[in-house]
Amino acid sequence: MKPYIPDPLPLQTLDYGQLITLVGEANAALAEYSGLLQGIINPEVMLSPLTNQEAVLSSKIEGTQATVEEVLEHEAGERFDEVKQADIQEILNYRKALILAQEHIGEGRPISLSLLLQLHQILLESVRGEKKKPGEFRKDQNWIGRTGCSMEQASFVPPDPLLLPEHLDAWSHYLNGKDFDILAQAAVVHAQFELLHPFKDGNGRIGRLLIPLFLFSKGRLSSPMFYLSSFLETNREEYYQRLQHISREGDWNGWIQFFLHGIVVQARDNVLRVKAIMALYERTKARVRELTGSKFTMQLVDTLFDRPIFQASDFAKRSEISKVTLHGLLRQLHTPEGPIVILKEGAGRRPSIYAFPELLNICEGKEVLAK
User: Fold this and answer.
1) Rounded Cα gap, residues 327 and 43, in angstroms
2) What is the distance between the terminal CA atoms of the chain, rounded to a whole angstrom?
3) Cα–chain-centroid distance for residue 204?
4) DSSP letter at 295?
């Protein structure tokens, strides 16, 4: 199999008649979600559960098995076996890269190739793939297929590494330019990046991370918190098939339709989820105020939403409430009427680990699905 030769951008072969209905539907769904985000005073805190979920799901597509709860338990001091720890570290790296990228775009800086190198460096730090040139575009020919297969047996061979810099420059120019519709352009940006396969490892995660950054940079999101990995994980087989149809048949229309449908599904799901989070935030604020009568109500609630599994010492540090005061407040919140439970009882020098189950249920979609 010969190396793939990317189609020039912008594409000249699209059937706009096939796409126009979905383009309108996707833009309307995303606009509703973006409008909802505008009403949130502190989206970084309130929507941090969505960021954690994205880090888990995008990494899961690549084979990691850790859950949101396990990641949060790890951060609260719980230890797991070596394989699980490695999965958790990959997820933490992804989350770190995602947050850094959001800050970068939030400062009004463009998406650049140098940003991608920086994110890739973070993604592969101290995890599987750390020997695969973190922070560097590939200089070797690689291919995708069954373990141990030859290039002739591969299911896909990315572009020649000697031509990769030229292809990346063209992709970057397209990304920072304009096309007939921004959401369709986002579909092309993501797929072309995956087909260029510019890194030796981590291409899928970087490509998915680019989606909210691109939409935010183009003004389609009021906050760079729209993650498509839940849809892509649910439809993983079709996701890979649609990308394969581009490389083998040039079927860009089918890919863009799949991507736009994903935006509609994910935006509607996110609207339900964010409304559930906002309602829970207000209910929790009222409960905490009623149970504690504390002047620290807002700090307690924000810290709970930022990390819903925690140790008291870490909670004290993040909330800036003294340990002595906090221990009394946690006792008041850990009652049958209170929002928190003890997930794991402390023993000896090991402290208790607390959880905020209502927020974790929303992260997993349990409360949303029940309504």
Assistant:
1) 27
2) 50
3) 12
4) T
**CA–CA distance, 156 with 143 (Å, rounded to integer):** 6
The number of residues in the chain equals 371
pLDDT at 308 exceeding the cut of 50: yes
Longest CA span, the chain: 70
DSSP 41: S
353-355, strands of its sheet edge to edge = 309-310, 353-355, 341-344
Residues β-bridged to residue 355: 309, 341
> What is residue 110's DSSP assignment?
P
Question: What DSSP letter does each residue of 1-13 carry, written as one string?
Answer: -PPP-PPPSS-S-
Model pTM? Answer: 0.91
Three-state secondary-structure class, residue 305: helix
The backbone torsions φ and ψ at residue 18, rounded to the nearest 5 degrees and listed phi first, read: -70, -30
User: For 245-275, what is each residue's pLDDT tens digit?
Assistant: 999 999 999 999 999 999 999 999 999 999 9
Query: What is the residue-averaged pLDDT of the chain?
Result: 92
Sign of the alpha-carbon torsion through 144, 146, 147, 148? negative
13-34 residues labelled b (16+ CB within 10 A) or e (exposed)? ebeeeebeebbebbbebbeebb
| DSSP one-letter string for 121-175 | HHHTTTSTTTTS-TTS---S---BSSTT--GGG-SB-PPPTTTHHHHHHHHHHHH
> What local confidence, expressed as pLDDT, does residue 366 receive?
60
Q: Is the peptide bond before 43 cis (omega within 30 degrees of 0)?
A: no
- 10 Å CB burial of residue 222 (0-12, 13-18, 19+) is middle
Q: Is residue 215 within 8 Å of 30, Cβ to Cβ?
A: yes
CA pair distance 120, 137, nearest whole angstrom: 9
Six-digit token string for 57: 């799901």
Domains of the chain by start residue, with CATH? 16-271 (1.10.3290.10), 282-370 (1.10.10.10)
pLDDT of residue 224: 86
Measured between alpha carbons, how far is 20 from 104 in angstroms, rounded to an integer? 32
Give yes or no for residue 169 having a pLDDT over 80: yes
